[in-house]
Amino acid sequence: MHDRHNLCRRLGVKRVLNGMGMPTILGANAVSADVRSAVDSALQLSVEIDELQAAASRSISLHTGAEAGCVTSSCSAALAVAAAAAMTGPDLAKVARLPDTAGLSDQIVLPLGHDVNFGAPVSQMIRISGAEVVRVGTASHCDGHHLRGAMSERVAAMFFVDSADVNPAGSFLSLARCIEIARTKNVPVVVDTAAGSDVRPFLDAGAGLVLTSAHKQMGAPTSGMICGSLDLVRSCYLQNYGIGRAMKVGKEGIVGCIAALDAWYAETPETRRARWKRLAGILAGRLKVRSGPHPHVVACPVPEGCDSSARALANQLREGDPPVWVHRADDLDSSLWLDLRVMSEADAAAIADRIHQAFDDPRPPVEDVPFHDLYWSERRLLAWPNWR
Fold first, then answer.
1. Strands, E, within 255-313: which ranges?
2. Max alpha carbon distance in the chain (Å)?
3. Per residue in 164-207, pLDDT tens?
4. Going by C-beta distance under 8 Å and a sequence separation of 6 or more, which residues neighbour residue 361?
5. How far apart are CA 123 and CA 112, in angstroms?
6. Which of 201, 205, 226, 318 is deepest in the core (most CB within 10 A)?
7. Which candidate, 258, 339, 263, 223, places its Cα nearest to that of 32?
8. Are 248 and 78 in contact (CB under 8 A)?
9. How far apart are CA 238 and CA 72, in angstroms?
10. Where are the alpha helices (DSSP H) in 151-213?
11. Integer distance in angstroms from the first to the last C-alpha of the chain?
């Protein structure tokens, strides 16, 4: 079997030293040996998918306290599936009709400021189901009257996005307030916490469904997880016999999600913080390091005398060999931010060396683009796959 370095050489791709975290553009989290072993076993046998998903539901319920759960191909798929489920319920005839929504309650309410781009707009994923997205409020504000004014008999659900991409300077309704208002019309609230660390607070708050990316925080193979009330989860699962068929998850994704779920909830927060502290210590052996806004993020100030912006340095690092992708390039305080969650100790040492070299020998990057987790440029996209 090829190890990871031989695989990259064989495919002609560069292995990235990941200081960015868990964005989809870098393949999200690294998968542990135990999860890989479970996936390998699953790939070598035949099982009934409905039965395997029922096992996933039991595991999800055990760890999260939700009444039920299921696995999807991704969290973006879960957005479309959840919207469809809110419109059809468990009616298989309605499931078969989508995206034709004639005669159904077919509106999904979404605060305008929550319609973020995670690689595609949240609203586009919802519209795949055939639903009409009703945006309320503004890009920086959503109040009770906005939400109450949108509620009608045509509303099937409200979606609430928990993401750092939602305007941090904005003033938006809390989840608790959204649930309170939606309940007056018997409208379920669906929470999208794709990059979140734990679904339980949203379930405890009364969300009807909570959607998350299992391949991010938990380290599963690419997959999403839906959890919540039994009736809504069952309605989500039935979409596998409708629009969900185009985004179905395989046995390896389901088993990998179960294994990652078991491992993530078994590990204590203290254990995770201790690992991040060790990695920060390795970085500090070569760089000046200070704490970032989260326990898993550190900032590396650009040294005085380094004649380069943080943004240019980040692009220089990304273009190098091996490439280093950073979490954020902050030109305001002249620092590079690093996310520690996907680093190994060996990677931390290599990242520290590469950043130290860039500080000592800053060079203009070939392509100077804004550095963020949706990194792309129109030039690169339109030249794909021959852009190198």
1. 290-291, 297-301
2. 68
3. 888 888 899 999 999 999 999 999 999 999 988 899 999 999 99
4. none
5. 9
6. 226
7. 263
8. no
9. 12
10. 175-183, 200-205
11. 28
